[in-house]
């Protein structure tokens, strides 16, 4: 009887590390300021574009205001919020031979470097995907209503926000340059997962995976 009790307890193992990591991933937002500005500039640009005729009759003033908000959004999402909220970063680099390389980084998930929370990842990707779709709707509404003076601004909004979306999808998918494969893989993965992938690290840049195109 005593031997049976010992056998029953031998296979019992408690992994508190996984429970702590799961609790952390479901915890509240770690970077509230970055999360706020991830949505603030892009939402402000959309609201200003929709409501500018109500507050001002100056086309130039509205145009410049929306363009500045779009530019601030592009810079903050590309350089700050992507790195803090989901551990992704991308940029262009010119080597010594004058060749252009697109570099995509993904933070490695490790015990000392925990992935972003699910709330932050969800906010990041929803904001990154939904807002360009809204600008595409604006493009067709501007085209069909013949408000062609706003067309350049709408195209700028689509271009700036689609560039960030494309860059971060490549980061998440490991720098794959085939857009059809990237899109199919990203959409299938996004249904089940919103966190940053776990990858290898490159010596000299601890916790990051580097992809060059």
TrEMBL record:
GO terms for biological process: protein secretion; vesicle-mediated transport. This is Golgi apparatus membrane protein TVP23 homolog. GO terms for cellular component: Golgi membrane. InterPro entries: TVP23-like. Belongs to the TVP23 family. It holds the Pfam family DUF846. It is found in: Membrane. It is a multi-pass membrane protein. The chain crosses the membrane at residues 33-50, 56-75, 123-144, 150-171. The gene is TVP23A. Keywords: Membrane, Transmembrane, Transmembrane helix.
């Amino acid at each position: 009887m005593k031997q049976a009790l010992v056998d029953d307890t031998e296979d019992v193992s408690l992994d508190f590390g996984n429970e702590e990591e799961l609790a952390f991933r479901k915890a509240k937002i770690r970077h509230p300021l970055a999360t706020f500005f991830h949505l603030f500039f892009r939402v402000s640009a959309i609201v200003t574009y929709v409501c500018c005729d109500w507050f001002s009759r100056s086309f130039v003033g509205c145009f410049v205001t929306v363009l500045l908000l779009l530019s601030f959004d592009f810079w903050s999402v590309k350089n700050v919020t992507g790195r803090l909220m989901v551990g992704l970063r991308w940029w262009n680099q010119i080597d010594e031979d004058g060749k252009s390389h697109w570099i995509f980084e993904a933070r490695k998930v490790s015990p000392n470097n925990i992935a972003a929370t699910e709330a932050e990842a969800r906010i990041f990707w929803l904001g990154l995907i939904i807002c360009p779709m809204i600008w595409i709707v604006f493009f067709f509404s501007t085209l069909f209503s013949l408000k062609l003076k706003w067309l350049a601004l709408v195209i700028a909004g689509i271009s700036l926000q689609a560039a960030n979306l494309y860059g971060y999808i490549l980061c998440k998918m490991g720098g794959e340059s085939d857009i059809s494969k990237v899109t199919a893989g990203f959409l299938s993965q996004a249904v089940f997962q919103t966190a940053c992938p776990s990858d290898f690290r490159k010596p000299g840049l601890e916790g990051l995976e580097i992809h060059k195109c």
